[in-house]
Amino acid sequence: MKWTINGRSYEAEVDVRTTLLDLAREHLGLTGSKKGCDHGQCGACTMLVGGRRINACLSLAVMHQDDEIVTIEGLGQPGNLHPLQDAFVRHDGYQCGYCTPGQICSAVGMLDEVKKGWPSHVSADLTEVALDDAEIGERMSGNLCRCAAYPNIVDAIREVAGVDDREPVLETAREIGA
Amino acid sequence: MFGFGDKTNSLTMNEPVPESLLDTGAQGVISRPLDRVDGPLKVSGTATYAAEYAVPGLVHGVLVGAKIGHGKVLAIDVEAAKRVPGVIDVVVDFDTFIRNAQQGGEEGAPTQGVKQVDYFGQIVAIVLADTYEAAREAALSLPVEYEYKAGTYDFEAHKDEAETPPRGLIPPHYSQGDPDTTYDAAPVKLDVTYVTPSQNSAAMEPHASIAMWEDDALTLYGAYQMPTSDASQLAKSLGVSVSKVRIISRYIGGGFGSKLGIAPESVAAAVAAKQLGRPVKAVMMRQQVFEATPRRSNTEQRIRLGCDADGRIVSFVHDSLVANLPGESFFEPVGIGSHSLYCGENRRINHDMVRLNLGLTGSMRAPGEAVGMVGVECAIDELAEQMGMDPIELRRINDPLKDPEKDVPFSSRMLTRALDEGARRFGWNQRNATPGSRREGEWLVGIGVAAATRNNQLQKSSAKIELKPDGTAVVSSAMTDIGTGSYTIMAQIAAEVLGLPVERIVMKLGDTNDPPAAGSGGSWGAASAGSAVYLAAEALREQLAKAMEVDPGDLTLKDGEAIGGNRRRSIAELVGDGMEATGEIVPGKQEKQFTQASYGAHFAEVGVNVVTGEVRVRRMLGVFAAGRVLNAKTARSQCLGGMTFGIGCALTEDLIHDPRNGKLVNRDLAEYHVPVNADVPQLEVHFLDERDIHANPIHAKGIGELGISGAAPAVVNAIYNACGVRVRNLPVTCDKLLAGLPAL
Predict the structure, then answer these.
(1) What is the CATH number of domain A2-75?
(2) Where do you find CATH 1.10.150.120 in chain A?
(3) Under a CB-based contact definition with an 8 Å cutoff, are residues A35 and A74 in contact?
(4) Where in the sequence is the domain holding B13, given as residue range(s)?
(5) How far is C-alpha B270 from the geometric centre of its chain's CA atoms?
(6) Which of A140, B130, B180, B589 has the most CB atoms lying inside 10 A of its own CB?
(7) Do A98 and B133 touch (CB under 8 A)?
(8) ipTM for the whole complex
(9) A:114-143 residues touching chain B, CB 8 A cutoff
(10) Class of A83-161 in CATH
(11) Best interface-test mutation with B: which of A18, A33, A92 has the largest number of B CBs within 10 A?
(12) Residue pairs between chains A and B whose CB atoms are closer than 8 Å
């Protein structure tokens, strides 16, 4: 079977039970997408399929042979990072890094959903969505981060979404006596 | 395992170290909020975690957990598994497999032997196949025959059988003066019992090992926090020399205590790899992580506080009940913070153990304080209310000038300052002490405070630095970075002392082939491994001074250049063919002569929905004093993480075991509720400027666990202030609040 991932063609023989996540991790050497629960509960495996974010652990590889699939590796690499990847580094939107590829892929998909005007559970106005902290928190809650970089993830996304109107939260080293 | 000959700069902390090169360094990178040096790898999916190494000929192993809570495995139908296409074998080694994970830092094997089943989910076999799918199918359907025995699964029902556990980090029982008589005689008394549930670290990366044998030597890529002692545990479990075991843990997807000691997948993978003569990968399923890796014990804490009319505590009693498996010595040190947090000449801090057939209990982020502070800090809040006193004032009055049990001073202690600074920043003066007095629509709003404290530990650790002729430095150590920022802060320390830009520091961590270190646990990592790096750099600085022919005191190192004696030369030039040095830090008398801990204060504002009882944390501030902050960005993130663990502890986290068979009911991330993004507001963190010269030569103290210690009680106290319902049984879920909320 063949797949197009990050614009590149891949070929592999897989079990019909092989998930899209295991295809990437175990067969194609694309280990950037993470397995945290294998049950669609944590979001660490989030990939973009046809531009939409999905839990790759809940989808079978055989369902995706005609799809455009983007994983974290395809968003950007060191030296040429995607703006969200870069923002996650600067805002420390991670700690251990394990949920991070899923967070970033999810954020890319989420921002596109907002751009299309899709409301969420917390949207005050169903026709015009304002991307505030509550919106980001709600829309990113499918991606668990046990290190709990949530406030920094929100800041990184705000910046890339162009709603970064807050004072920087980080105190300077001088203030802490460096 | 230690000892490196003449080139080791070893320091035993017998004396304070008032002068630190980090204060006089010219590079100006220490404490700066630099981005993580490993950041670009992590955000691009190119950092390699344990299960992600491409190893030729790899066999997939899936573990099999027992489906009874107590009894014996009579038979495993290996042939049935082998009928599944793709399955190679089932490895059953009843004697060698470990019953449960080991505790962190132990040198020996954990309890071995799995024919007897002592808890539901105990790993009894590993199924091996060419594909993950085949191994999983056969593992999930493997016929196992059991002999059932009655088990003890119900904490409540067995409380009366509690026994005294062996000594751990603290003695299980401690008494001073006459706590009971003075309590009875005290004019003001509080006697309350707080209950905290069992919890799971729930690190995002499941425990994973890839085991490979070459002749009689084992290399294991593992998700481990403490590779040096883990290698020893693994060697003892397998009956091989520790020199034959190498553990590599370059990136670890979170640990929070659950990866301190070896877990069952490591031994199973190693045994299977040996038997098959092929490398084996074993990754725990999330449900197995919940069942067969350490959990935090549930606790029942009875706190009795007796004080005089002015609020000065005369009797401080903290009696705790905890649980663990039969035969295990670890007990959750619930009262560890209580030993030195507040005054009280008469004291008792006891721990007793209920033996249960439930999974191993062990260290989870801030063992002791994380839950012990719930009891104490909520009790203080209750006592303050009873006395009509501000809870910050009550804490101030009882802030001791020296250790209330030992006749020794504190190395540094900024508890009251943290409370005051936090009060100012959070707007504590806006608080109405009468619960339920602030309402916004459907929401009752309140604020709460709690102290933070976490004991400080230094652990023997070493690191090597090689200065290369190209002017770069390679720092290597068996220390780990589990998300804490070790890669970055160790690079900053080396850069500061050696006068190199951080970009010129190459970091190598997580490999037992490199100098041994205590790894990441107990918040000692940065201070211990960081001191080792500091000492190695100090030795190299002396070598550079010698090459420069100046006194080290007259040498300035900056941006890759050495300046001294009116000369300026590049470090690369001075290095010649290369220089290297190893640094080693060893705990000494300072930890006996001074009580060492980090301190802080948590403030929380919550809304309680009057209709549903739902609790939302609206604001939260942590003010912390933990010695020198080595990187303002990563240190803040550590605190954010700790505070969020506190939110989970207060509101949602609760491992539930079926009292009929010990089966964990909520063994996945959909049913065990860790805080999600929407549960956590934009938390605020503020650090107080502090140096601790008694702790170590870099003057830093632990920070990773300070943020959780006291966070949950701040939330619980805020809930009380919001709605007037005092919940003493965590987590504070809607059902526990509803009955006490005002009528609609």
Answers:
(1) 3.10.20.30
(2) 83-161
(3) no
(4) 5-30+458-586
(5) 26
(6) A140
(7) no
(8) 0.97
(9) 122, 133-134, 136-138, 140-143
(10) mainly alpha
(11) A92
(12) 229
